[in-house]
Amino acid sequence: MLSTVIAFSALAIAANALAIPVDPAHRIELSSCEFPNNTANALNMYSCSTSGDTIEVNWVRITDLNGVDMYPIDPRKPFILELVAFNNGPDYEDNKVDVRVFEYQKSWQTGKCGWAEIPTFGALNGIDGCDFAKNCPLTSGDLDLKIELDLSPYSNIISMLTANSAIQLQISMKDYNPGSKHEEITCVTAQLKIN
């Protein structure tokens, strides 16, 4: 026991002796990134679709359950995602969604701000779009969707990862109609601020 105390004391003294004072002007602040692309004030959304994708998302609005605009988003509360899109392909009776999560942060290596992917270890892959968003079928032609989303099962993870920063969600929807090859049918990137 005494030898353990002596060893830890020696380690603490050595660490203190080796500590290098950091000039505050050169210290890297990991949480000092400004919100990019006006995400402090509004959702920023754009298509990440490839040329073969059949659904084009044109407009997105987020409201609370009463239809009042909601921004920033509180993932602990259900909300409505209104989408205006166009489906150039067939009716989709079944779809699965893969979501990648990024956080806007300052790199400890470069000191520059950028999007860094947060590993989700597959937890956000293969989400059943029909069950989760209750949006099936996705018919051919104009799509005016009002999707009630409840992210509360993921809110603790999202809130922990995004404290005081912007997040980016890259959402890829895949065709799971019978006989399909599970090809991507649309991809949307949403950059936003979460409470």
UniProtKB/TrEMBL annotation:
It comes from the Eukaryota. Residues 1-19 form the signal peptide. Keywords: Signal. This is MD-2-related lipid-recognition domain-containing protein.
